[in-house]
């Protein structure tokens, strides 16, 4: 297995999770304002 490929996928997964969390937080703030 290619370690660099695994790191690449892991980094994109982390970025996707962060964007999802930020979107949910931003939506909650927007909804309650």
Describe this protein's structure.
There is one protein chain. With 33 residues, this protein is an all-alpha fold. Helix content is 91%, strand content 0%. The chain contains 1 helix and no strands. The longest helix is centred in the middle third of the chain and has 30 residues, at 3-32. The chain crosses the membrane at residues 9-27. Keywords: Membrane, Transmembrane, Transmembrane helix.
Query: Biggest sheet: strands, sense, closure?
Result: none
Structural class by secondary-structure content? mainly alpha
Shape label: rod-shaped
Average of per-residue pLDDT values: 86
Helix count, per DSSP? 1
Hey, roughly how much beta strand do the residues contain? under 5%
H/E topology pattern: H
User: How many strands?
Assistant: 0
The N- to C-terminal Cα distance equals 48 Å
Low-confidence stretches are none
Give Rg in angstroms.
Answer: 14 Å
Percent range of helical residues: over 70%
């Amino acid at each position: 297995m290619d370690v660099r490929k695994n790191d690449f996928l892991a980094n994109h997964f982390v970025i996707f999770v962060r964007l999802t969390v930020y979107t949910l937080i931003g939506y909650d703030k927007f909804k309650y304002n």
